[in-house]
Design brief:
mainly alpha; 14 helices; 0% strand; disordered C terminus
Length: 335
């Protein structure tokens, strides 16, 4: 019953936002812009989106190596694509992370905790890169471009960044770890103490191997830049008329859509976030242009997830786990 209610909530949020957006825009203009889209821009955006996926794989691989799990690159590509496919189902990005982590953990006997922690840290590093770039670019928009009306958004993102830094410190710092463990001794939150100790203890390897975090963060920044170019290509494909600089300002904020309940990889929510950021808040695009751009990006995300669905289906067709391990996974873990 609970799962059905959650799914119903996601459907209602997505459909509600779609209905609201369609009342604000000229559907004929949106359809015309998409129908007249430049396919060279679209193909370039799709190709570059796979580059962004590849950067995420490299980032995850560095974090796994810090856990002494040297997984081959193309093995991680497979797990990542499967996770991307599941993230596009009526679930969430969290389900995608669970799927890729579970897919890898099945073939790393006795190392499931390390795999799970690497997925969590991978997600945190990725989000931190988006938040930091968003803070820097919003500061530039307010101070350098004279957009004082965006000060409230800059303050909000800066507060989120401080909370993010504090959360990382609580997990990695030995001194803060002891303080927080004492706080978890308090009655109402005591039941979460074991979970915190397990997570914090597993993450100490990254405290000792800070180089891996630095490399992963640098790769994540490249990923932010790559997805910005993907969004710029999508905007140009439908002639949304959004300058690259403003896409660099607002693109790092679009991942918030991943954490709002929705169906099919943010359908409806993504469109609401794009129109809200680029049109309502940013005033750098018309609602029609922002919606057309978001719909094109939605299609790009769906197309990029299809290989993961094919890989997952092929894996299901393997009759014997032993055959799968021998033919597909043999030699994946070395060292």
């Amino acid at each position: 019953m609970k799962d059905r209610l959650i799914l119903l909530l996601k459907v209602l949020i997505s459909l509600g936002l779609i209905f609201y957006l369609f009342r604000r825009v000229e559907l004929g203009r949106v359809a015309g812009a998409i129908g007249a889209a430049n396919y060279w821009y679209l193909l370039s955006a799709l190709a570059l989106y796979f580059v962004a996926i590849g950067l995420n794989v490299v980032k995850w691989r560095y974090l796994l190596q810090a856990q002494n799990l040297p997984i081959p690159f193309f093995g991680l590509v497979r797990h990542t694509l499967v996770g991307l496919f599941f993230a596009n189902l009526p679930l969430s990005v969290v389900a995608g992370d669970i799927a890729r982590g579970y897919d890898l953990a099945r073939h790393t006997s006795g190392r499931q905790v390390e795999v799970a922690v690497s997925v969590v840290v991978d997600r945190l590093v990725g989000l931190s890169s988006f938040i930091i770039v968003a803070t820097v670019m919003l500061a530039y928009a307010v101070l350098g471009l004279g957009r004082a009306d965006l000060m409230w958004l800059l303050i909000t993102v800066a507060v989120v960044l401080l909370a993010f830094v504090a959360g990382f410190a609580v997990l990695l710092s030995q001194r803060l770890r002891g303080l927080v463990e004492r706080l978890f001794g308090w009655g109402p939150v005591a039941r979460f103490g074991g979970l915190y100790r397990s997570l914090s203890g597993a993450m100490q390897v990254y405290r000792a191997g800070a180089g891996a975090l630095a490399v992963a963060f640098t790769i994540a920044l490249l990923g932010v830049l790559t997805t910005t170019v993907v969004n710029w290509l999508a905007a140009n494909a439908v002639q949304a008329g959004i300058p690259f600089l403003w896409i660099l300002v607002f693109n790092p904020l679009t991942p918030i859509a991943q954490f709002i309940p929705s169906i099919a990889s943010g359908l409806g929510v993504n469109q609401g976030v794009f129109v809200g950021l680029y049109s309502t808040i940013g005033r750098v695009a018309s609602p029609d242009g922002a919606l057309a751009m978001s719909l094109v990006m939605q299609v790009i995300i769906y197309l990029a997830s299809l290989p993961g669905g094919v890989l997952w289906w092929r894996k299901r067709r393997v009759a014997s786990p032993a055959v799968e391990t021998e033919e597909v996974w043999e030699g994946e873990i070395s060292g």
